[in-house]
Design brief:
The complex is a heterodimer of chains A (about 230) and B (about 375).
Chain A: E1 2-13, E2 16-28, E3 33-37, H1 44-51, E4 59-64, E5 67-68, H2 74-84, E6 85-89, H3 100-105, H4 114-126, H5 142-154, E7 160-164, H6 172-187, E8 191-196, E9 207-212, E10 215-221
Parallel strand pairs in A: 3-8, 3-9, 6-7, 7-8
Antiparallel strand pairs in A: 1-2, 1-4, 4-5, 9-10
Helix pairs in contact in A: 5-6
Chain B: H1 2-11, H2 13-50, E1 55-59, H3 64-70, E2 77-78, H4 80-86, H5 91-94, E3 95-108, E4 111-118, E5 140-143, H6 145-151, E6 158-161, E7 164-171, E8 182-186, H7 187-194, E9 199-200, E10 202-207, H8 217-228, E11 232-236, H9 238-280, H10 282-290, H11 295-332, H12 345-371, H13 374-380
Helix pairs in contact in B: 1-11, 2-9, 2-11, 2-12, 9-12, 10-13, 11-12
The chains are: A alpha/beta (about 230), B alpha+beta (about 375).
Chain lengths: ~230, ~375
Amino acid sequence: MLICESLSKHYRSGKGTVRSLDRVDLKVDRGDFLVIKGHSGSGKTTMLLALGAMLHPTEGRVMFDGKSLYDLPQNERARIRARSIGFVFQMFHLIPYLSVLDNALTAVENPSATESVQRSKSLLRELGLGDRLEHFPHQLSAGEKQRAALARAMMPNPDVILADEPTGNLDPENALEVCRHLKKFQEQGGTVVFVTHGDAASSFATRTISLKNGRLLSSSDDASDA
Amino acid sequence: MLRLIIRELLFRKGHALLMLSGLVSVSALATAYFTTEKAATKETTRVARDLGFNLRILPRETDMDAYWFQGFSDHTMPEASVDKLASADGVFMTFNHLMASLRQKITIQDREVVLVGVAPTVTSPDKKKRPMGFSIEPGNLHVGHQVGLRLGLKAGDTLTVSGRDFNVERVMVEYGTEEDVFVYGSLKDVQALTGMEGRINEIKAIDCLCLTSDQDPASILRAELEKMLPDAKVIQDRVQADARARQRQMVQKKFAFLSPFLMTVGAVWVAVLSMLNVRERRSEIGVWRALGKGGISLGGMFLGKAVLLGLLGGLIGFWIGNVLAVNVGPGIFQVTAKAIQTEWSYLLWSIIATPVLAGAAAFIPAMMAVVQDPADTLRES
């Protein structure tokens, strides 16, 4: 479903060129729960943003369902993001002036439609936020914020969820819960790409890869089976 | 989108209030200023008009030496000249408030006075302006201060002129000019008394030219009159014309300075606050991008916010500005106090111009939000 071909992203800085990603080849199949591990600065987030049609690579290409993402016009990439890709961030990035329910509804094209509202409520209840629908992000705990962000990512029923350190700001219990919800999404036919520097998600992964200095180091299949 | 904008406004109340206060200030100051300025313009027009006629249209053959010595022309022209002039194409673009008169010296009780017959003033039919000058009903006279003093006259007395009795309608106040020895009557009466039926020897008028200092009004007026009334010539009271022009230009200059100043201050205020808003919402912009929102939606959120605040600011600003102008203005601008009143036409201007100003000022910040690389903000945070 997602294929990276010789993907590179270079930045210019005062100290010269930084190779955030360096000729990475990667294939993500439908139904994968791929964990990308690496230390800070290894290129994980860059990789995730490039996969999510958010960051134009310096070289190489990203194929999504057979289409080269960065050869598409900008509005077409935006449409793919809106319909097929969900994002979850370490810092949650909920819209601070919208309630939990409205945050989840930001991910759909017609937020005032009855079916959208019903689906949003049902999803939030599934994620344990049934009594938090009208609360604002600042009234939630970190775990609740991340579950609200997860609901937003799942709302359009995307093909893939790209999660950038989603457990980075959570205690072990909440981290586990978020991983469980992502696993459930994957088991229902979705695809998850989970970027982390920790081990919390390893037991849920169907495959784990490591990045170091922008290069792919290793790949292990079916870690969860191990 | 409107719902999102309102939610954001309510969430960042401090920022919204700052932006709104700037727009309200601009709108209020503009409303107060324009309201008092309009009053000042009205008052200027009144003051300028009260300065009196500044043009004298005389028979072409008038000997100007004799005219200035005796105060009227020895020659006459047909009374119909006024109608001919008033019906000429575009006359009221140049000349207005046309008052025909006949002046002659006569003797009343052994002393010479200037008898002046005046016809009702003719003004442009398009402009509903109160005619300048005054009209006198046949059988009545307005007596100059010095004549009244010498003859011991008061309003309601009878004065006999050339064997005919007239009612003294008014004894004029002391002007300190030659008018103190004038006796005014209706044109028809004076024509009959002097045996000059159907004749006049002067048309007074006001010029409507709004010229700059490098233009010569006299040559323009002469050229125009030549086309309309070739048997006449025009003399301009230059001192009075210059005073009128200076007064008018002074008001216009004040206006020309203050309005761009107000607009610039307001625009900078909105632009700076909008930029701060864009900076503050960097990560939010990144998230909207990640959610698939396009540039139009994003730009619309920032422009829409500015326009909405502009609309609100325009309404509140008009109200405050009007209250300021009507209640505080008379205390500050005492000369024009009576002319200051609510100008409802400025409400429409305020609710159109303030959102336009806010939108224009927020345009660049909105574009900054649109072109911002979402990956940068999401990677940073």
